[in-house]
Write a structure and sequence with these properties.
The chain is an alpha+beta fold and about 120 residues long. It is built from 2 helices and 6 strands; from the N terminus they run H-E-E-E-H-E-E-E. Strands 1, 2, 3, 4, 5 and 6 form a 6-stranded antiparallel sheet that branches. Strand 2 and strand 3 form a beta hairpin. It is elongated, with a radius of gyration of 26 Å. The termini are far apart.
């Protein structure tokens, strides 16, 4: 009885391995460029112990108009950090980050800038 069971187990393993070698799966490394499609949104962002307001809207393929309210004119670095990291979290495809496209401008109590998913 033991020899018969061992033979069946070996046969099952052999058939399983044979089935694995006949696969129609192709592995490629080419990935289509992900496109972000979304609506304008506004989010409260907690940063360095304070809450700021982030507004962003799509302007083109993976490109966003962004503004950060509640920071002063000397907080450019903080505004850029809030905008780019938030864009990566809220809008960019997985594995991409937000990157500034031009120097931000401060006007009417807001930092305004454009950023893109990279």
């Amino acid at each position: 009885m033991q020899k018969h069971t061992s033979g069946l187990i070996l046969l099952a393993v052999a058939l399983g391995l044979a089935a694995c070698s006949q696969s129609d799966v192709r592995v490629t490394r080419d990935k289509p460029a992900p496109q972000v499609v979304m609506k304008p949104r506004s989010e409260p962002i907690f940063y360095n112990g304070k809450t700021y307001q982030l507004d962003f809207a799509p302007k083109g393929p993976n490109l966003f108009d962004m503004s950060v309210s509640g920071m002063g004119p000397s907080q450019q670095k903080d505004a850029v950090a809030v905008a780019t990291s938030s864009l990566g979290y809220f809008a960019c495809p997985e594995g991409q980050k937000g990157k500034l496209q031009a120097n931000p401008l401060y006007a009417s109590g807001r930092w305004r800038m454009q950023a893109k998913c990279w």
